[in-house]
Each structure stands twice: as C-alpha cells, then as structure tokens.
Write a structure and sequence with these properties.
Strand order of the largest sheet: 3-1-6
Distance between the termini: 33 Å
CATH class: Mainly Beta
Order of helices and strands: HEEEEEE
CATH superfamily: Domain of unknown function DUF5300
CATH topology: Immunoglobulin-like
Helix content: 10-25%
Radius of gyration: 15 Å
Strand content: 25-35%
Number of domains: 1
Structural class: alpha+beta
Number of helices: 1
Shape: globular
Length: about 120
C-alpha cells in the first residue's frame, strides 16, 4: 500500500517530468542561497503542540520541530527550515491540543517569511 506522502511525491515528480518535457524547467540551483527562515504564527485559539516541516521529497514527517515546547495562541516562533539540500518546497504539519491536525503541502519557504495558522 502506498502512503500519502509517497503518492503526492509521485504526482509531483510526474508534473516535474512534464515541465521538463516542455522545456520550461527552472534551474536546479533556484533555491541556492535563499533564506529559509519562516516565522510560524499561531492565530488560532488553541495551543499548537507539534510542528513538522518535511521536504516534499520525504516519504515521512521529520522530527517535531517544537520538541518539548508548544506554541500558544497569539504567539510565534521563527524556524530555520533549511535542511541542507537546497530544497525550497516543504510540507507543513501542525498538531493542536484539541486534536486538530492541519497539513499544508508544497510551501515555498524560499519566498515567504511567515506562515500563519488561523
């Protein structure tokens, strides 16, 4: 059985192949030197207990970036999303104290400085 991230990755790879076929692909080093620090803002009324940012190429979620910390409502934290690969696109996953889980796919961390949960 294929997991969700693998399926999404396969679709993304197919789209990339189609782009390459059309000859309009961006250079491989498009994200080189880009700032990948993103301020995560919790504008909800519920405490965020876990936050994950995994490269779109990853099959599974990386470790919880918040660790033992939490992100209370109205608060923010600045996170360096740079994993050393030069990748700009990451999937975000936020877990909240009430059990809600919010996933956002293909966030371009090279082009944003903040991401807000509402």
């Amino acid at each position: 059985m294929i997991n969700r991230k693998s399926f999404i990755r396969a679709i993304g790879m197919a789209a990339a192949m189609a782009t390459l076929t059309l000859g309009v692909a961006a250079p491989a080093s498009a994200g080189a030197g880009a700032d990948r620090r993103v301020r995560i803002i919790n504008d909800t009324r519920v405490t965020m207990t876990q936050f994950y940012a995994s490269s779109v190429d990853a099959d599974d979620w990386e470790e919880d970036i918040l660790g033992n910390d939490v992100l209370r409502p109205g608060r923010s934290v600045r996170i360096n999303i740079d994993d050393g690969t030069g990748e700009c696109y990451f999937d975000f996953k936020a877990v909240f104290a009430d059990g809600d889980v919010l996933v956002r796919e293909r966030v371009n961390v090279c082009s944003i400085s903040e991401y807000r949960y509402r």
